[in-house]
Amino acid sequence: MLDTNDIGKVFDPITASVEKGQLNRFAKAIGENSLIYIDDATAKNSGYDDLPIPPTFLFCLKMDVPEPFGNYEKLGISLKKLLHANQSFEYFNAAVVGDVLTFNSVVEDIYAKKGGALEFLIENTKVVNQRDEHIADLVTTLVIRN
Fold it and tell me: What pLDDT digit, counting tens, does each position of 3-48 carry?
């Protein structure tokens, strides 16, 4: 069972670098064919300092750490019962190849439905770059089946 006392809990920050090779593999994997994400000249002609990241790439960067589910396990969540229910993104600035991004996450809410058979954890993540510019906010909804 989740503990509502964990609402407001701040997780350790995650830092990740935006690397060209990783970005190219991601674009290929999702079938992204817009030149803005794969061609340096097109990106620069479109006003970017380098290749920008596609919209959902931030979630991949956040999960590309040695223990991507470690924060959830610290809350007592069994990975066998964990479902990723929803993900949303709100962008404020572009992130590009060469940026170093920091993900600052907090437990926004915890609640139950169906008499506790399903528990929900809402995690808000603020992403900033190496210049402390606000890049995006991510909202993750997790469901724990009891």
Answer: 999 999 999 999 999 999 999 999 999 999 899 999 999 999 999 9
How are strands ordered across the β-sheet holding 118-128? 14-17, 100-113, 118-128, 134-145, 82-91
Instruction: Determine the topology of domain 4-17+53-145 in CATH.
Output: Thiol Ester Dehydrase; Chain A (3.10.129)
Tokens 């609402």 belong to residue: 7
Residue 20 C-beta-side C-alpha neighbours within 13 Å: 9
pLDDT in tens, 78-97: 999 999 999 999 999 999 99
Contact 123, 40 (CB under 8 A): no
Q: Is the pTM of this model over 0.70?
A: yes
Pairing of the two strands 14-17 and 100-113: antiparallel
123: which 2 tokens? 């995690």
The domain locations on the chain are 4-17+53-145
Would you state the structure tokens that stand for residue 69, as one six-digit string?
């589910």
